[in-house]
Specification:
About 40% of the residues lie in helices and about 20% in strands. With about 325 residues, the protein is of the alpha/beta class. It has a domain of about 170 residues: Metallo-beta-lactamase, Chain A. It has a seven-stranded mixed β-sheet with strand order 1-2-3-4-5-6-7, with helices on one face. A six-stranded mixed β-sheet has the order 8-9-10-11-12-13.
């Protein structure tokens, strides 16, 4: 058993992508009749882990039929081009709004360089390799595809990003949710209950669309969710209301800030809110440990809220 992979039920294997830190971002192999789909891809150096896990299963990269990033944010799709390069039989299944960024990643790279810096991007994500247009399947809402004898279904789920879909797997009665069903790090579990929160990442946070997307997922009565951040979440119905409420709470916090005359720090308020929710949840982790787990996400949440609020103001 490899240290970074975990065999789940229903022929699903969870792989830690190795992005930034252990336990931050997962990707999944779904296997049926010797055929493989890779759902989310991590970054360039994740490809060697995928190869290693395939080998452990007695498979090779030739067995991979589909590479399926849930959306084109780099922790999900940064390694797609590399995987397509080593999996010669695979098609890339991608949201119609994301496909052009996979075929020509120059805008993705420029955007990421603005955030990470050139060197930082190379260190954390590696090379972002273009995907041949002929190997791309643009999967709109309700697109179905067969992996061996197993049907996978695409559900369009805007809210976190407009180029986001989730994958329904009838065999497991589970969704591969990318970021749509929020983040739930195992370290934040208390008494077997997960702590779930919405990444309002720049630049396409849309609360109304997100609520509708969660409702669409739940309408399939999923028994489990496979979160990219991080791992399998059972009984999603238990967490659905927390997720809805926290989307609204964060949006309200951002609007309040915008309207108040005082020059308050939104980051401080978001931090205070998350800490208050974690305390109510029962978390006893100290500040330093929480910071290691949450600082990056809180930073992105704050930036995303700021972008969203200024867009609201423009449309007034
Ligand atoms: Zn994302």
């Amino acid at each position: 058993m490899l240290s970074y992979s975990k065999n789940l039920d229903y022929n699903i294997i969870q792989i830690d992508t190795g992005y930034l830190r252990q336990g931050l971002a997962a990707c999944y192999l779904v296997i049926d009749s010797g055929r493989v789909a890779v759902i989310d891809t991590g970054v360039e150096h994740t490809a060697s882990r995928v190869e290693e896990v395939l080998r452990e299963q007695g498979l090779t990269t030739d067995n991979v039929d589909f590479i399926v990033p849930t959306h084109v944010h780099l922790d999900h799709a940064g390694g797609a081009g590399k995987l397509m390069q080593i999996c010669q039989n695979a098609s890339l299944v991608i949201h119609p709004f994301g496909s052009r960024h996979m075929i020509d990643p120059s805008r993705l790279i420029a955007g990421a360089e603005a955030v990470y810096g050139k060197e930082g991007l190379h260190r954390s994500v590696g090379e972002i390799i273009p995907v041949d247009r002929d190997r791309v399947i643009e999967a709109a809402d309700s697109y179905r595809f067969m992996l061996g004898s197993r049907e996978l279904l695409v559900i369009d789920t805007p809210g976190h990003a407009r180029h986001h879909f989730c994958i329904w797997d009838e065999a497991s009665k589970g969704f591969f949710t990318g970021d749509t069903f929020g983040l739930a790090y195992p370290e934040l579990e208390c008494d077997g209950r997960s702590f779930i929160f919405p990444p309002t990442t720049p630049v396409q946070f849309d609360p109304a669309a997100w609520h509708a997307s969660i409702d669409r997922l739940m309408a399939m009565h999923p028994e489990r969710m496979y979160l990219t951040h991080f791992g399998q979440l059972d009984e999603p119905v238990v967490y659905m209301n927390d997720l809805h409420r926290r989307i609204d709470d964060l949006a309200a916090l951002a609007l309040d800030h915008d309207k108040s005359a005082a020059d308050l720090d939104l980051a401080a308020s978001v931090n205070a809110y998350v800490n208050q929710e974690l305390t109510a949840h029962g978390s006893k982790l100290d500040k330093e440990k929480l910071g290691q787990i949450l600082d990056l996400d809180i930073d992105l949440i704050v930036q995303g809220l700021q972008v969203w609020v200024s867009r609201q103001r423009e449309s007034e």
